[in-house]
Amino acid sequence: MENKEKLESLARIVSGAHNIVITSHRHPDGDAVASACAWFHYLRSLQSKKVKVVLEDFAASLSFIAEGCPVSSPVDSAAILEKADLLICTDMNSLSRASETMQQALGSFKAAKILFDHHLNPAEDEFDLVFSKNDISSASEVVYYVLKALCKSAEEQQGLFGGLCGRALMAGMTTDSNNFANSVYPSTLQMAGELLAFGVDRDEIIQFLYNSCRENRVRAISHILCENLEIRDDGLAVIKVSSECWHRFGLEEGELEGLVNIPLSIAKVKMSIYLREDTSPEGTIRVSIRSKKGVSANAVARDFFHGGGHEQAAGGKLLIPQDIPDFAHSNLILKQIKL
Questions:
Q1: Cα 318 from Cα 25, distance rounded (Å)
Q2: Which helix (H) or strand (E) element contains residue 123?
C-alpha cells in the first residue's frame, strides 16, 4: 500500500534509532491505543528496540488491547522524550491533537518524527515521514499494512500478527469501523481475513469490546436516550450529557462509546451530535458527530466545533467561555447548524 522508497526510508530511520517513543491523540480511543501498541510489539519483538508508549488514561474496556504493552503517563513526557531519538505518532493528523501535557514536549522534540494516520489534512510539515490515507478504516489498518511490508518473511508475519500485535490491530480496526458498520473498504476486509488466518480470535475481541460492560452503562444510556435526546425536524439528533448526569451514573471514561451512533438507526435522522460536559479545569465540552452518507460530519465539526475528521465521523469541542457561557447554552451553537 506504500511505495518501496518510502518503506525503505522508514526502515532506515527505525533501524538507526535506539530509544523510541510512541504516542497518540488526547482521550485515546481503541484505534489510538491499538495502533500505538502494535508498533510497540513490532519494535520490541522484531527490532529489539527500547520503546516507551505514552498515552493519556484510556477506557478500562480497552485495557485488553494494551496487554503486554506498558503505557506511561504524559506527566512524564518531557523526561521520556529527552532520551528518545525517534517519535512515532499514530491516529492524529497533527501534534496539536496530543494531550495538553504532551504538546510542549512534542513541539520541542528535535529528532525524527513519523506519522501513521487516516484523517484528513495531515500536518506533513510537522513530521519527517508521513503514512496517511483517507480511504481506509483506521490508523490500525495503515499500521497493519506497513508492518506487514516491513516483515522479512512469512514466519515473521505469523509471529507478529498471530499474537498480541494482531489482536490489537483487529480491535483497533473494529472500533473505528463501528464493527464494520462504516469506513469499510476492500483493504479492510482483506486485513480482517488475513488476521483471522494468522490466528487472531475475533470472538474474544467482540466479547471484550461489546459484551463486557458494566450495568452502569446500560442504565445510563437508557436514561439519556429517554431524557436527553432531541430530534429536530431537519434530521439532526442531539444528545447532551452533563457532568451531573455523568457522575450520577458513576460513569467511567469510554463507557458511552458508541452512544452517538444510536440515533442514526432512526430513518429521519441524518446526523447525530453528542455533547459531553467535561470536568476538566479548562472548561470544555467534548463533541462527537456521526452522519449518514450525503451529510458531512467533518464540515460541521470544522465549522462549529474546532474539529474535523471524516465525512461520516468527526469530532471537536466547545470552549467555555470563549464559545458559549456554559453547557446549558450549547443551543446557541446547535441552532446555527442547518441540514
A1: 18
A2: none
Look at residue 339 and tell me if it is in a domain.
no
Instruction: Give, for all 339 residues of the chain, the pLDDT tens digit.
Output: 568 899 999 999 999 999 999 999 988 999 999 999 999 999 999 998 999 999 988 889 999 999 999 999 888 888 999 999 999 999 999 999 998 888 888 988 999 999 999 998 899 999 999 999 999 999 999 999 999 999 999 999 999 999 999 999 999 999 999 999 989 999 999 999 999 999 999 999 999 999 999 999 999 999 999 999 999 999 999 999 999 999 999 999 889 999 999 999 999 999 999 999 986 666 899 999 999 999 999 999 999 999 988 899 999 999 999 999 999 999 999 999 999
The CA distance from 285 to 93, in Å, is 21
Backbone angles phi, psi at 127, to 5 degrees: -130, 155
Give the CA radius of gyration of the chain.
Answer: 20
C-alpha cell at 53: 508508549
Burial classification of residue 45, based on how many CB atoms lie within 10 Å of its CB (0-12 exposed, 13-18 middle, 19 or more buried): middle
| 90 and 203 belong to one structural domain | yes
Q: Are 25 and 130 in contact (CB under 8 A)?
A: no
77 exposed, middle or buried (CB, 10 Å; 0-12, 13-18, 19+)? buried
Q: Structure pTM? A: 0.91
Residues with Cβ within 8 Å of 176's Cβ and at least 6 positions away in sequence, in order, are 29, 30, 31, 118, 137, 138, 139, 140, 183
State the residue range of the domain holding 249: 216-334
CA distances from 144 to 36, 42, 190, 234 (A): 11, 10, 11, 40
**8 Å CB contact between 292 and 271:** yes
Q: Would you call 82 exposed, middle or buried from its count of C-beta atoms within 10 A (0-12, 13-18, 19+)?
A: exposed
Instruction: CATH number of the domain at 61, please.
Output: 3.90.1640.10
Which stretches within the chain are classed as H helix? 4-16, 30-45, 77-82, 100-107, 139-150, 154-161, 164-176, 186-198, 202-210, 215-227, 243-248, 297-304, 331-334
* Residue appearing with cell numbers 450520577: 248
Number of separate domains in the chain = 2
